[in-house]
Design goal:
It is built from 26 helices and seven strands. It is mainly alpha-helical. The chain has three domains: 386 residues, Up-down Bundle (Growth Hormone, Chain: A), CATH 1.20.1250.20; 94 residues; 78 residues, no CATH class. Strands 1, 2, 5, 6 and 7 form a five-stranded mixed beta sheet that branches. A hairpin with a 2-residue loop joins strand 3 and strand 4. Helix 4 crosses helix 25. The longest helix is centred in the last third of the chain and has 53 residues. The termini are close together.
């Protein structure tokens, strides 16, 4: 299908809708990004253990998991736009609670509240954008929403770096998140509801006006004039559609191919088009004139309205989450499988480890807290650039190639990071005694990555070629030194204290390295390569796919199932990562995520069809195994 020629009015409408909806992505991204830097400060103020830190991260995910399923019901009951508005209000309230939280439990309440907001909005935003966009725009528009997620993460990382030295900085980090929610509430006042939702509700005049706005045909006189077309459209459709005479038959969903060159378009639309063309000729309007352009716009608008209405079967109400999960409809079952595995691949590929724990990982790699926070901002910036690349590539390269090559690249980058941690752990002195909040830590590298702890040992050799084979990990700080009686623990007064880095474990490493600084940059470089591979494919395309593949009646429920899968896997990963590192070391965790990414590349090569450029109504045929001819 040839791309439409758009006027400035349609571009303005498109920008308004994308901006209003994608602010949900900005909120989503800000919250997932801000916790990376804020967590270091929260852990310091509340003296949190590793398990408590995991709980702070996971609280938002838990709220999001619940609300992503509720989002389907809300979107089908009050509409897509009002659901986004309700989520924005909830997000603002949650950010205020976080900024004022006096205790850990109030902080957790705020995190759950924010999670309720971003879970619902993350499920509904792809639905709203997919139902509002032209087929040729759908991929890049949903990718823009994903770019807003990563943009929010970058903004959050910059805020983390800018306010880290301010007393109580984490309160500012978390409270500033209310601003995009307030802006979204205002923006949603100026955009329409999804026309497909309005048609499903039988609100045809509103649907026509919403579609006219989205296609740049919504000047007030034209809208009033378009009311005269309702009888013509209804007569073309025949009875049995939403708003038509009761008791009449309805065409099947498959009949509404959405491609007006098919039987439906050629048989039903041509008479009206010819009549309108005859009127234009009779009036003497030359080709290319504004009047002729308006005529073409009204014809295209009527044709698109016809395709939408014919695809929405009045006898099939919007399906629930449960009915979609239990469906025997083969294309719908395949749609659920693709959407769910796409979101699983995104989360099990390790992206939220790079986002939630990037500052903590960079501290483990040898950077101090301030440098780790600023480098985490750079990592978030790379993720944002990769997401912008997705918006450019998704309608050019296609969904399938991006998913496959992205998974391969991400898996290899994670292997590279794992090797860096293997080298680091091999050169780190062992901990033979740990106590208090530092209990159970096996190596110096893990000891100094915890801001509450430091490493003490008795050096062998002489500077600058001194080394330590083993020592103790105890509570303490850079200025205060160890809180424990290290002389008694080590049996020697000749100990030294390390708080941000570690001594080498042997004379050879002391002489030849690699240094902690080099290993830190190795991990940082692997993180950059990971996100450059991940963001254009696994980071963005699963949201595009789930916007593509569900039929009208199951779109809200299907997106809710996929989004709930995302948040479930997110919860599993974020709530277990620090424990996984403690058990398997950092390299073991990275190898697990690398394996998941590489397996997902094989999976998508096997099962994922290409849906680039197809109308929403045509994708069902592809999922059912029927090829759709591509024209234009």
């Amino acid at each position: 299908m040839a791309d439409p020629v758009r006027g400035h009015r349609e571009w303005r409408a498109l920008a308004a809708v994308v901006s209003a909806a994608a602010l949900s992505g900005l909120q989503f991204g800000y919250d997932t990004g801000v916790i990376s830097g804020a967590l270091l400060k929260i852990a310091e103020e509340f003296q949190l253990s590793g398990t408590s830190q995991e709980l702070v991260v996971a609280a938002t995910t838990l709220g999001a998991l619940f609300s992503s399923l509720m989002g389907a019901w809300l979107a089908g009951t009050i509409g897509r736009r009002l659901t986004l508005a309700a989520a924005a209000v909830t997000f603002v309230v949650g950010c205020i609670v976080l900024a004022l939280a006096p205790t850990l439990w109030v902080l957790l309440l705020g995190r759950v509240t924010v999670g309720l907001a971003i879970g619902a909005s993350s499920a509904v935003t792809p639905v709203y954008l997919a139902e509002s966009a032209r087929p040729s725009d759908r991929g890049w528009i949903i990718s823009v929403n994903t770019a807003c997620v990563t943009g929010g993460q970058m903004v959050a990382a910059l805020v983390d770096g800018a306010v880290q030295a301010v007393p109580g900085s984490w309160r500012y980090m978390l409270g500033i998140g209310a601003l995009p929610g307030v802006v979204q509430l205002v923006a949603l006042l100026f955009v329409p509801e999804s026309p497909r939702f309005l048609i499903m509700r039988g609100r045809l005049p509103e649907a026509r006006e919403a579609l006219a706005f989205l296609r740049g045909e919504a000047a007030p006189p034209a809208v009033r004039e378009a009311d005269r077309d309702e009888d013509a459209v209804t007569s073309l459709l025949g009875p049995g559609r939403p708003g038509a005479a009761p008791g009449a038959s309805a065409p099947s969903e498959e009949a509404g191919s959405g491609r007006l060159g098919g039987a439906l378009g050629s048989a039903d639309v041509a008479p009206a088009a010819q009549g309108e063309g005859a009127l234009a000729s009779a009036a003497g309007t030359p080709p290319g004139s504004p009047a002729r352009a308006r005529t073409r716009g009204r014809k295209a608008l009527r044709a698109e309205m016809l395709a939408m209405r014919s695809a929405i079967d009045d006898d099939k109400a919007a399906e629930s989450v449960w009915s979609v999960l239990c469906s025997r409809d083969r294309p719908l079952r395949r749609a659920v499988l693709l959407a769910v595995t796409g979101q699983l691949a995104q989360q099990l590929g390790g992206v939220n480890i790079a986002m939630y724990y990037s500052a903590s990982l960079l501290r483990q790699a040898g950077f101090d807290t301030s440098a780790a926070i600023w480098l985490a901002a750079a990592v978030a910036g790379v993720n944002f650039v990769g997401s912008l690349a997705a918006a450019y590539l998704v309608e050019r390269a296609g969904r399938r190639p991006l998913m496959i090559w992205s998974a391969l690249g991400a898996g290899l980058a994670l292997v590279l990071a794992a090797v860096a941690f293997i080298v680091r752990d091999g050169g780190s002195p062992a901990v033979f005694l740990s106590e208090g909040p530092c209990g159970g830590i096996p190596l110096c590298a893990y000891c100094v990555s915890d801001e509450r702890c430091g490493f003490a040992g008795v050096p062998s050799g002489s500077p600058p070629l001194d080394w330590v084979q083993r020592g103790v990990c105890v509570q303490g700080g850079a200025a205060t030194g160890p809180a424990a009686n290290v002389t008694a623990l080590l049996g020697s007064p000749d100990w030294q204290w390390w708080w941000t880095d570690c001594p080498p474990v042997s004379r050879e490493l002391a002489a030849n390295g690699p240094s902690d600084s080099l290993l830190g940059w190795w991990v940082f470089g692997a993180s950059v390569l990971f996100l450059l591979a991940f963001a254009p494919g696994l980071g963005s395309v699963p949201w595009v796919i789930q916007g593509d593949i569900f039929p009208n009646r199951a779109r809200a429920a299907g997106n809710a199932i996929a989004t709930a899968t995302n948040w479930s896997a997110n919860l599993l990963v974020s709530a277990s990562f620090l424990s996984l590192v403690a058990t398997l070391h950092a390299y073991g965790a990275f190898f697990i995520f690398a394996g998941a990414a590489l397996v997902s590349a094989l999976w998508f090569w096997w099962v994922l069809p290409e849906t680039k450029g197809l109308a929403l109504e045509d994708v069902r045929a592809v999922l059912g195994g029927r090829p759709i001819p591509r024209t234009g």
